[in-house]
Write a structure and sequence with these properties.
Shape: globular
Number of helices: 4
Strand order of the largest sheet: 7-6-5-4-3-2-14-13-12-11-10-9
Number of strands: 27
Largest sheet: 12 strands, antiparallel
């Protein structure tokens, strides 16, 4: 049984979906109210879309509405893409207790999702069914005859309130993000991630949830006994400010698990990344740089975008039993009817099985200089490759996708994390000036940080 008390009104999106049936039953019996829980909603069920900036990253411009609320019409994040898995399936999670840096396994559980165009249902291990209905401007979560609504569209950095008056903030989307239990292990890295930080004012609990586009909830921390005036930021040290311990949950698959009662360890240690003792890859570009030209028209139509084959410059690499001796990325980035398009596939030589390779390539001008933003950040490309073949089996298959201009290129932050640090205008100027990719590196695969061979 989970150490989470079913009498505790957990207010996060994911925890709510798991516990809503129990919680609403308790609410009915105790006559505590007829709404529900949190997850990107706004004041007393009526004024969705407050979208106050709430900090340095805020850029809210939500419009809101009366009479039940329709959410922020101008919000750039569609929560339906992140809160709901893209396909039907069974998902299993591991839960841990983290106390003084020691990570202790607590329990595991399974949930079943059924997803359609306008609705998704989650069935927990007690056969309690929660329904999430997807409207044009709001999401409605229902169970046991009761429901509540949240805005479907929100803005990054904005501060919102749910229908019970509790605050939450949404950060991202991040091109890739790593969630780690106990800040070390187990961990997993996913692409196109948002982070939702919610505050239960009644119980002074904080939940930090990671949601990957198309996967839903992939990991999160839950803290009790937090200060009532605690700040909802990515930099806040909740483990230090809240109670003496906290709980973490992580989606099973693509991550390593520590032994019972082992504290987090370094590379190759008992509680580490699960590799065989190599060194985590690092990105240290040496290419000279140039600013992105403003309003350039130097690129002719028949050379707009770029394509080709690139051999990874940092192989051989390993994760657990998989060794990559060499990897070639075949990419294509172009434009169609004024929108960016892209696809990528890989071929590799080595041993073991390979999935979810995360690559990073420098974005160069035609003269071989790497573009940098006005703030001095180097510009890279990184996006999901198509199907991954077996070693020595040639290239996989991919279909063309079209990101938004503001998510076409990435910048690199600490610990090899990528962010969408290139604005839409800067991305368009890169296309207008022509570009190609170079010096591709493999950062992660099989859910773990790639490591150089120990020998």
């Amino acid at each position: 049984m989970s150490t989470y008390s079913p009498f505790t009104p957990l207010r996060s999106v994911h925890f709510l979906l798991r516990w809503m049936g129990i919680l609403l039953t308790i609410l009915v019996l105790s006559a505590c109210g007829g709404s529900s829980d949190d997850s990107d909603a706004d004041p007393d069920g009526g004024d969705f879309g407050s979208d106050n900036p709430g900090g340095n990253t805020g850029n809210g411009n939500g419009t809101g509405s009366q009479g039940g609320g329709t959410g922020s019409q101008g919000g750039s994040i569609d929560l339906a893409n992140y809160l709901v898995p893209a396909t039907n399936g069974t998902r299993s999670f591991d839960e841990y207790m983290v106390s003084d840096g020691t990570v202790s396994p607590d329990w595991s559980y399974t949930e079943v999702w059924q997803v359609s165009a306008n609705q998704a249902t989650l069935t927990d291990e007690d056969n309690v069914v929660t329904t999430l209905s997807i409207g044009n401007s709001e999401l409605t979560i229902s169970s046991w005859g009761l429901s509540y609504r949240i805005p479907r569209h929100v803005n990054p950095g904005g501060t919102y309130q749910d229908s019970w008056g509790d605050n939450f903030r949404v950060f991202g989307p991040f091109a890739s993000r790593t969630f780690s239990v106990g800040n070390s292990s187990p961990s997993r890295t996913d692409q196109d991630v948002i982070i939702i930080i919610s505050h239960d004012a009644d119980w002074n609990d904080i939940e930090v949830g990671y949601y990957a586009r198309g996967l839903g909830f992939v990991g999160g921390d839950w803290y009790e006994d937090c200060p009532s005036n605690i700040q909802l930021t990515l930099e806040t040290q909740y483990a230090q400010l809240c109670g003496s311990y906290y709980y973490s949950e992580i989606l099973q698959g693509n991550h390593s698990t520590p032994d019972n009662n082992q504290s987090p360890g370094g590379n190759g240690s008992t509680g580490g990344t699960g590799s065989t003792g190599g060194t985590d890859v690092t990105v240290n570009p040496t290419t000279s740089t140039t600013l992105i030209p403003a309003s350039s028209s130097a690129c002719s139509g028949n050379t707009l975008g770029s394509s080709g084959d690139l051999v990874a410059i940092n192989t051989p690499l390993q994760v657990d039993a998989t060794i990559i001796n060499s990897l070639t990325l075949r990419y294509d980035m172009d434009v169609f009817f004024g929108e960016p398009t892209r696809k990528a596939v890989v071929a590799w030589e080595g041993s073991g099985g390979l999935y979810n390779p995360i690559w990073l390539a420098e974005v160069h001008n035609p003269q071989g200089l790497q573009y940098v933003t006005a703030s001095g950040q180097r510009v890279f490309a990184s996006y999901l490759a198509g199907s991954t073949p077996a070693a020595g089996a040639g290239f996989g298959f991919d279909t063309t996708g079209s990101p938004s201009w503001s998510q076409t290129f990435v910048t690199l932050s600490g610990s090899n994390q990528t962010d969408f640090g290139v604005s839409a205008d800067e991305a368009k100027n890169i296309y207008r000036a022509c570009f190609n990719l170079a010096n591709v590196r493999l950062l992660r695969f099989n859910g773990s940080t790639a490591q150089t061979l120990s020998n």
